[in-house]
Amino acid sequence: MPNSAVLTDLLAQYVGDLSRGYQATNRSEDRPEYERRLAMAAQLFEALHRSDWERFTEVLSSATRAQGWGFLDGSHGAAAEASLAKLAQQARSG
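The structure corresponding to this sequence follows.
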């Protein structure tokens, strides 16, 4: 398993970016997407906290696939998508 402290930091960045985007968006159609991604981030945190690498990679894979299905508008959405990409890259290279 890759360094959990690094993954935790990257996951916190992703959650922060999602939270800022959720608070800033004026687009009602984006809110459910932010909520869904925040729920997946909670699952990632739980798996990471429990050192369940199999579950972490399973949820991360779903999250990265789902990212392509729902576009988040604006700079906050772009920041969240970039944060998830960094998290996935670190998890793969770990």
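The helical segments are 4-24, 31-49, 53-67, 74-93.
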